[in-house]
Amino acid sequence: MKEDFLRPPRTVVEWTADALRLIGVLGVVAAAVWLQVTDAGIAALALPALMLPRMLGMRAGFDVLSSVVVLAATWSNVFELYTAIRYWDLLMHFAGAGALAVIAALILDRCRIAAVTAPGVPARTPLVLLPLIALALSAVWEMIEWFGAEFVSPAIHVGYRDTIGDMMFGGLGGVVAGIVLTTVSVVRRAAPEDAAAEIARSAAAVHSSTEG
User: Is 67 a domain residue?
Assistant: First the structure.
């Protein structure tokens, strides 16, 4: 993960993804200076979701897509677009839960908690697990909203119908994410020089162990 995070961008799409991450960081600073503290906190919540695709070595196209979704969902909250545009809330829950479910699935793979996208995993696995992950993430988000409404600001809108609708569309986003994972790979292929470096490191490690 460290190597992927420190890997320099090499294509226009990779530069775009990193530019979106920079926008996310600058957005936190701007919100802290010109907006309210709660707005800065909301913007800061987006930073892990912006950084994780790079750490996980995701393909640049998905990196850009997920970053756009995360930034749109975050700043829609700051600028109150959820109340200004009808059904915008449901659209963001659909897209956001789907994108985050893919990221969470790769984390489960990397941590060897559950095999979701690893080679040899049956196609039905992501079709089942991704909706469940998306529903779990949606539930966590609704808990955060409830906490904010109770202890931070009564302006945060929560309610039974709102919560159920948000979770339902989040689950549907997970269904789409599961279908995506069964058809395409969201992890980038290692460049030839990266593969050569990895082989060299493995050979050096084997050589050191045999000498020891």
Answer: yes
